Amino acid sequence: MTHPNASSRPTQAVVLAGGQGSRLRPYTDDRPKPMVEIPGTGTPIIGHQLTWLAEEGVTDVVVSCGHLAEVLQKWLASADLPLSVTTVVETEPLGRGGGLKYAAAHLPRPTEPWYATNGDIWTRFSLRDMADFHTERDAVATLALARPRIPWGAVRTDGFGRITDFIEAPLSTFEVNAGVYVFSPEFTALLPERGDHERTTFPRLARERRLAGFSLPQGAYWRAIDTAKDLTEAAKELAAQS
């Protein structure tokens, strides 16, 4: 049976893969951040992302390249990919919002919705459920929201200031932008030509109540790969799951 929202689920996506990845050096000295491999998998982060997008019904992806773009383009050209991939390279820095707009202009179906993901996100959850959530709320943009673990041990106290418990790496009480999005077709026109959409477009949509937040389901795996420690942790977590 076809889900009533199935026709509004995106089949195209943008992957933002242009960051410098300076905090991941030396891994990023000779490759862009999305080309860094999760230890033990033999596949770069972007390879896992493209497989996930294909599993979620995406057929066409535009990869926005920047730092060491030719390394990423060479890998994409030689890899056995589960979907069609186009790459674009910014000739001058456009900022996150401008870069997203530039990449979106190369999507094959501009009148249809689309997904976007940051190139350093390692996650698995149902994009189809997120797309349905987006449609049901009549949103122009929907952000996936994650509850990351705080990297320090937390302390619980009673009303008198006595410590009652220690909690190692607890989940944050706040949700954060998980770097995965669903956008309606009209979102592209709202993006700045250059600059950061998170300071312009998103706040405007929030004020207009047209921005939605999809909380990742409990137990869904999510990690932003920012540092060498993140790589080590991701490898440990994957080993524990297998």
From TrEMBL:
Q: Where is the Nucleotidyl transferase domain?
A: 13-239
One Pfam annotation reads: NTP_transferase
Which organism is this protein's natural source? Streptomyces echinoruber
TM regions (residue ranges): none
Name the InterPro entries for this protein.
Mannose-1P_guanyltransferase, NTP_transferase_dom, Nucleotide-diphossugar_trans
Q: What is this protein called?
A: Guanyltransferase
